[in-house]
Amino acid sequence: MLRAILLGIVQGITEFLPISSSAHLSIVPRLLGYSTPTLAFEVLLHFGTLAAVTAYFARDLWAFVLCLVAPGRLGPEEAATRRRLLGLLALASVPPSSSPGAEAGAGRALRERSYSSAAIMIAVVSTSQTDARSGRAVC
Questions:
Q1: Residue 50 has what DSSP assignment?
Q2: Is the C or the N end of the chain the one with fewer CB within 10 Å?
Q3: How far is residue 103's CA from residue 54's CA, in Å, rounded to a whole number?
C-alpha cells in the first residue's frame, strides 16, 4: 500500500514535467529496492492522472464543448478565443512526421537525429508560456 502511494505521488509530480513520468515509475522502485510495477499498475496510475487532469480542467474542457455546440453561452469573444485555442491544440497534437511535406522537412530531421533529454527539456521549458488570466501553462 505504501509503495502504491509513493508511486502515485511520483506519477503526480513528474507527469507535468517535460520528462517521462513512466521512466520514473521504473527508476524510483529500483532506487528503493522494490520490484518494477506491472503494466496493469502503471496503466492504473496513468488513468488516475487522466482523471485528476480531467477534473482540474473540467471548466476549460466544458468551455471547449460549448464553443462548438453553444457559442452563445460563452459570448462571441470568449467563443472565438476558445475555438482558436482548440484549433491550435489540435494542430499541436499532430506529430511532425504526419504533416504534409514532412519527408522533405522537419519530420525526417526529427527521425534522423537523436536529441539528449536535457536539450529536449530546455526546449520545452523555454518555449512554454503562461496564460495571464488563469496562470496555467500554455505550450
A1: H
A2: N
A3: 35
Q: Which residue has the cell 520528462?
A: 19
3-state secondary structure of 3: helix
Across the chain, the runs of DSSP E, i.e. the strands, are 129-130, 137-138
Kindly give the interhelix angle for 39-56 and 2-14, rounded to the nearest 10 degrees.
50
Instruction: Tell how far CA 52 is from the center of its chain.
Output: 13
Q: Which of 3, 5, 4, 16 is nearest to 121 (CA)?
A: 16
Among residues 38, 39, 29, which one has the least CA distance to residue 9? 29
Cα–Cα distance, 4 to 65 (Å, whole number): 35
Q: What is the pTM of this model?
A: 0.55
- How many Å apart are CA 134 and CA 88, to the nearest integer? 18
pLDDT, tens digit, for every residue of 45-84? 888 888 988 999 999 999 999 989 998 888 899 999 999 9
Q: State the Cα angle at 46 between 43 and 48, rounded to 5°.
A: 115
Helix (H, G, I), strand (E, B) or coil at 132: coil
**CA pair distance 132, 106, nearest whole angstrom:** 31
